[in-house]
Write a structure and sequence with these properties.
The complex is a heterotrimer of chains A (about 290), B (about 325) and C (about 80). With about 290 residues, chain A is mainly α. Chain A has a single domain (about 65-285), classed as MetI-like (MetI-like fold, Orthogonal Bundle), CATH 1.10.3720. Helices cover about 75% and strands about 0% of the residues of chain A. Chain A has 13 helices and two strands. Chain A has helices spanning about 5-40, 55-60, 65-95, 105-115, 120-130, 135-140, 155-180, 185-190, 195-225, 225-235, 240-250, 255-280, 285, and strands at about 40-45, 50. Chain A has a two-stranded antiparallel ribbon. In chain A, helix 1 (about 5-40) crosses helix 12. Chain A is globular, with a radius of gyration of 24 Å. Chain B contains nine helices and 16 strands. With about 325 residues, chain B is α/β, with parallel strands linked by helices. Chain B has a six-stranded mixed sheet, sandwiched between helices. A four-stranded antiparallel sheet of chain B has the order 2-1-4-5, covered by helices on one side. Chain B has a four-stranded antiparallel sheet with strand order 13-12-11-14. Chain C has one domain: Nucleic acid-binding proteins (OB fold (Dihydrolipoamide Acetyltransferase, E2P), Beta Barrel), CATH 2.40.50. Chain C has a four-stranded antiparallel sheet, with no helix packed on it. The radius of gyration of chain C is 14 Å and the shape is globular. The chains are: A mainly alpha (about 290), B alpha/beta (about 325), C mainly beta (about 80). Chains in contact: A-B, B-C. The interface of A and B includes residues 195 and 203 of A.
């Protein structure tokens, strides 16, 4: 390579791509490799990590107590996803297709809480729903109930918290998909004899299916890892895989086990995304 | 001739925008009627009101004698061909064309028969399994027409269906549409801004301008006897002279214009100028089409007339 | 000829294939548009001519003053 060619072609390319590549390597690839390596390590009696290759960590993953947590995570994640779809779809449909001046405002109302730290918002719900919290106080004052409601530390509360946090993730891809709907298609469907629900089933639903699928992935996967929601609102009764991982890195002091769990979670995510891609999902909208 | 669509006193107002102003129009059964005008004249709005996508602010529309204000688009015996074709992208051509019949719960066997026959009629046999994205503009156009016609509507509404096609294809499709209309004997109500298209295809043309129907008549009537200055200048080209009527006698009127006087003959009636005929001293416009004007060969003047080839080489 | 005969000066010819459009200018500055079939003998540009038409071809139209109509390109209101 001549010096001139280097300056004209290679150098500009390197300058443009270089920093990003470096960033990706340092902050993404390296940690991933680190976790991968750690998942095959062991710990000694002092809970220090040793580089003694073992697959024991992966074997531990099929312990009965862990399986219970996996199932619980799946149930919670599925419930959350379902509730999100059912609530978000009509809501997003109305916002996306309204011709009102308040369209942007309504959209922002969904997005803005999204910018606030979810941890703080979940803490807010905890104090709101607690026995001495706002909800109970007001209901008692209005004499609607005589005893405070026991709302916290139930599985339902965890699901509620998950839905609350992940709702915008369902709205965003749905909004894009519904916004792209050509209204003349709906008119054509009506013109040809389809009543409201028929148009929905035969035209609207199929054409927004990718948005729904995208939203499902965006809700389901984080749900498996949202340990702080189940910690704060569920109080240990509704652990998800994320909680397991957290425990290994904190109180459990078993980093290799935690790493193995993380790898499994990553694998599940990749499988789901691949499945999404295979069924024709729009990869761009996943980035949202 | 039976009236199939009766539009009475229809107004459409959007906020402060008075889009259709007191429209009265009778559409005859089996005719090819075109609503012609430039953008914003109200022609598409009128079509959409007949289809059921818009409701008249005041007035009534009846199809086959029945008022349709309360009927949804799918309850009317009317189908629409959209400007953008509006084919369902996620369905095959077969499913697109069969859509209306499926909604009517027609038996599968009959659907298959009718779909294949209709595709043959629009010269798209063999395209059943394809998707709209695989078709050209002209082909999509024909699918849209097939999809609408298969429901055997009494009236077919077409909203500038040929707008997106190139000139040659458009001219071809114009003839095909005309042929189809005559063969099926369905009433076509066609919307366009292309006057040539209107003149080619229509039995009658309704010229709309600023929400008002200026004139309705056959292409010849519209061209040779325009009723308003707008119609005269919108269709084809013309020369206009404004002036005042000096006298009317025996079907002939003398109009004073800037340069002198013009005579207009051929059954000019004297009347009050408002309800019947023309009145003396009325402001009028005289329109003369370019092809009707001639050079006067004056024998006494040495006018030198040359051949075309000599003129263009100058 | 009864209709009208107006003096004009030939200003331009526009060739459109099957027809030839002729623009002539009236003494008051207004333009007249004519259409002639290609192949006819025609006066050259700049020639002073007389343009005429049959009275039956002069169509009378009510002029509604309260409405303003846009004129076509090349047509100037008298």
């Amino acid at each position: 390579m001549t010096k001139k060619r280097f300056r004209e072609k290679t150098l500009p390319a390197a300058v443009m791509v270089g920093p990003v590549t470096l960033w990706l390597i340092l902050l993404v690839a390296v940690p991933l490799i680190y976790i991968l390596v750690m998942s095959f390590c062991s710990i000694d009696q002092y809970y220090n990590v040793t580089f003694h290759f073992t697959v024991d960590n992966y074997r531990h993953l099929i312990d009965a107590s862990y399986i219970k947590i996996y199932v619980q995570s799946l149930v919670i994640a599925l419930l959350t996803t379902l509730i999100c779809i059912v609530v978000a779809y009509p809501f997003t449909y109305i916002i996306a297709r309204t011709k009102s001046r308040f369209k942007s405002l309504l959209y922002m109302l969904v997005i803005i809480p999204f910018w606030t730290n979810s941890l703080i918002r979940i803490y807010g719900w905890k104090s709101f729903l607690g026995t001495t919290g706002w909800l109970n106080s007001i209901l008692m004052k209005l004499h609607i109930i005589s005893q405070p409601l026991d709302l916290l530390f139930k599985q339902g509360t965890t699901v509620f918290g998950m839905v609350y946090c992940l709702f915008p993730f369902m709205v965003l891809p749905l909004y894009t998909a519904i916004g792209k709907l050509d209204s003349t298609l709906l008119e054509a469907s009506c013109d040809l004899g389809a009543k409201g629900y028929k148009t929905f089933l035969k035209v609207i639903l199929p054409l927004t299916a990718s948005g729904i699928f995208s939203g499902c992935i965006m809700v389901f996967i984080p749900c498996l890892g949202y340990f702080f929601v189940s910690n704060i609102l569920g109080g240990g009764n509704s652990d998800v895989i994320g909680n397991l991982i957290e425990r290994q890195f904190k109180s459990g002091n078993n980093w290799p086990l935690g790493a193995a769990l993380s790898i499994i979670l990553i694998v599940i995510t990749l499988v789901l995304v691949k499945l999404y891609q295979k069924t024709g999902g729009d990869m761009d909208s996943l980035g949202v | 001739m039976n009236t199939i669509v009766d539009i009475k006193g229809v107004n459409k107002i959007y906020g402060t925008n008075h889009v259709v102003k007191d429209l009265n129009l009778l559409v005859e059964e089996g005719e090819f009627l075109t609503l012609l005008g430039s953008s914003g004249c109200g022609k598409t709005t009128t079509l959409r009101m007949i289809a059921g996508f818009e409701e008249p602010t005041t007035g009534s529309i009846t199809v086959e004698g029945e008022p349709i204000e309360d009927k949804e688009p799918y309850e009317r015996n009317v189908n629409t061909v959209f400007q953008s074709y509006a084919l369902f992208p996620h369905m095959t051509i077969y499913d697109n064309v069969a859509y209306g019949l499926k909604m009517k719960k027609v038996p599968k066997k009959e659907i298959k028969e009718r779909v294949l026959k209709m595709l043959e009629m629009v010269q798209l046999s063999g395209f059943e399994k394809r998707y709209p994205s695989q078709l050209s503009g002209g082909q999509k156009q024909r699918v849209a027409i097939a999809r609408a016609l298969i429901n055997r509507p009494k009236v077919l509404l077409l909203d500038e269906p040929l707008g997106a096609l190139d000139l040659k294809l458009r001219k071809q499709m114009q003839l095909e549409l005309k042929r189809l209309q005559k063969k099926l004997n369905i009433t076509f109500i066609y919307v366009t801004h292309d006057q040539e298209e209107a003149l080619t295809m229509s039995d009658r043309i309704a010229i709309m301008h600023d929400g008002v129907m200026d004139q309705i008549g056959s292409p010849t009537e519209i061209y040779e006897r325009p009723a308003t200055k707008f119609v005269a200048t919108f269709i084809g080209e013309t020369n206009v002279f404004d002036g005042t009527i000096r006298s009317i006698e025996g079907g002939k009127a003398v109009i004073g214009i800037e340069n002198g006087e013009v005579t207009s003959s051929g059954s000019v009636e004297e009347g009050d100028g408002k309800n019947t005929g023309f009145a003396v001293n009325e402001f009028v416009t005289v329109s003369v089409r370019p092809e009707k004007m001639h050079f006067l060969r004056n024998r006494w003047r040495a006018l030198r007339f040359r051949r075309l080839s000599e003129i263009t080489s100058m | 000829m009864e209709g009208f005969t107006v003096p004009a000066v030939v200003r331009d010819y526009i060739y459109v294939g099957s027809v030839l459009k002729c623009i002539a200018v009236l003494p008051n500055g207004n333009e007249i548009k004519m259409e002639k079939l290609a192949g006819e003998e025609l006066p050259p540009i700049g020639e002073k001519v007389f343009i005429c038409w049959e009275p039956e071809d002069a169509v009378l139209i009510h002029s509604l003053d309260n409405r303003f109509y846009q004129s076509m390109e090349n047509i100037k209101l008298a």
